[in-house]
Amino acid sequence: MADTADTRTPAQIEADIERRRAVLAETLDEIGVRVHPKTIMGDAKAKVAANVDHTLGRAYVSVNRAVSEVKAQFVDAEGAPRLERVVPVAVLVVGVVGLLALGTRRRRG
User: Fold this and answer.
1) What is the CA angle 57-61-66, rounded to 5?
2) Bridge-partner residues for 75, per DSSP?
3) d(CA 88, CA 92)
4) Residues 74, 86: contact at Cβ < 8 Å?
5) Alpha-carbon dihedral of residues 79, 83, 88, 90, nearest 10 degrees?
6) Contact 89, 74 (CB under 8 A)
7) Which positions ≥6 away from 89 have C-beta within 8 Å?
8) Which pTM was predicted?
9) pLDDT < 70 regions, the chain
10) Is 75 helix (H, G, I), strand (E, B) or coil?
């Protein structure tokens, strides 16, 4: 059988108990903070805000990429307009606006 006798003095045992009480009290305080409703709500709000920021960031990148791709269709590498593409689109826009204006004028008249 192994010798299990405690060789500590009563003062050492009391000091050890106090140390363990302090660690336990600190642990209980941490648990209390973690399960407090304000902490839980704050964590939830932070998680939602992070998800929204992430989603908005991805949306911004997607929109920026789409705008760059459309711009590349109408502007060459030096930044000059590509007339072979700009003129047909401009004519189309003017035609659609003209048709809408005629339709509005006919309804009023």
Assistant:
1) 145
2) 81
3) 6
4) yes
5) 60
6) yes
7) 74
8) 0.47
9) 1-3, 109
10) strand
